[in-house]
Design a protein that fits this description.
Elements lengths: L1 E5 L3 H13 L3 E5 L2 H11 L3 E5 L7 H11 L6 E6 L4 H10 L3 E4 L4 H32 L10 H13 L5 E8 L2 H8 L1 H18 L5 E6 L2 E7 L3 H16 L15 E8 L7 H17 L5 E3 H5 L1
Parallel strand pairs: 1-2, 1-3, 3-4, 4-5, 9-10
Antiparallel strand pairs: 6-8, 6-9, 7-8
Helix pairs in contact: 1-5, 2-3, 7-8, 8-9
Length: 303
């Protein structure tokens, strides 16, 4: 565990440092509250042992600064007081300290508190990992491992906060997928969706994003693209899916194919996300009506 010591008294620093290191922990030392805060921001220690009275930030101010800066992490703070008065201890706890020790420092007392600190910070780290995993899971389609509609809503909201940032939406549908499921079964259908999802993600840039919109529909967000360049990207994607050669006796092409409709958020057309989705969906419908296995631009329908 990484432990930050903050104390303006040299002898106290030496004693505390020796006690921390004897307990088997890495030690960072600050001579006042201001340098302690700087070192805390640089090193993110799991525990802080701070004197109450110091030049610059005092121990209470340091506690408050640490607590205000924390997000998913948690720092265990041990306040060191000269006489352990109830008033000082209460002020420390109210400022965010977890425990306290009194001077002169008893190495055994500090060792016990560092054991508690290690246990508490480890639990907080586990909880942060679980929260992160659950957050990711809530935004991921379980079958294809693509982003889901919750993540799409969040990402579109972020894009629309950047009003001058051009992008295109491409609504994609697997052609004649219902008949594919009827002929080959839902297990084969799931495998086909996974293969197509993998291809979609592979064929676009890292800056772009692919989402499972629902059923056999996917949605691609293509960053910094014009309608023409987005159409070129989607033609490449369509061809890559065709080249998978997933046999489909119920399709005129004999293989699974996709159709796509593309809408654009560009100068002169700063539409809301719901309108862009509708435009992409109408363009997809037009692609389907025109024979499937093709890409249609919403701009072309408007013209």
């Amino acid at each position: 565990m990484k432990v930050l010591i903050a104390d303006d008294d040299q002898i106290s620093r030496m004693i505390t440092k020796a006690a921390v290191e004897q307990s088997g922990h890495e030690c960072i030392v600050a001579e006042d509250g201001d340098s302690a805060w700087q070192l805390y921001q640089e090193h993110s220690p799991e525990a802080v042992v701070t004197d109450l009275m110091m030049p610059g930030l005092n121990g209470l101010d340091l506690c408050r600064a640490i607590r205000a800066s924390e997000e998913d992490s948690y720092t265990y703070i041990i306040l060191v007081t000269s006489h352990g008065s109830r008033k000082d201890v209460l002020a420390g706890m109210e400022a965010g300290a977890d425990d306290y020790v009194t001077k002169p420092l008893d190495p055994f007392s500090l060792h016990i508190r560092l054991l508690a600190a290690q246990r508490i910070t480890s639990l907080h780290a586990d909880l942060a990992r679980y929260r992160s995993a659950l957050t990711e899971q809530a935004r991921t389609d379980p079958l294809t491992k693509l982003h889901n509609r919750l993540k799409l809503t969040e990402d579109l909201g972020l894009l629309h906060s950047l009003d001058d940032h051009d992008y295109c939406l491409a609504m994609v549908d697997v052609d004649n997928f219902k008949s594919y499921n009827d002929i080959y079964g839902h297990q084969a259908g799931d495998a086909a969706l996974v293969a197509i999802a993998t291809t979609l993600a592979r064929e676009v840039r890292k800056a772009d994003a692919v989402y499972r919109f629902g059923g056999e529909e996917f949605l691609l967000v293509l960053q910094d693209q014009s309608p023409a360049t987005a159409a070129s990207v989607m033609e490449r994607v369509r061809s890559a899916v065709h080249d998978l050669r997933i046999a489909h006796s119920g399709d005129p092409d004999g293989v699974l194919t996709i159709s796509a409709g593309v809408s654009a958020f560009t100068d002169g057309h700063r539409a809301g996300s719901e309108q862009l989705l509708r435009e992409a969906d109408l363009a997809l419908y037009a692609a389907k009506a025109s024979g499937r296995n093709r890409v249609t631009l919403a701009d072309a329908l408007a013209g």
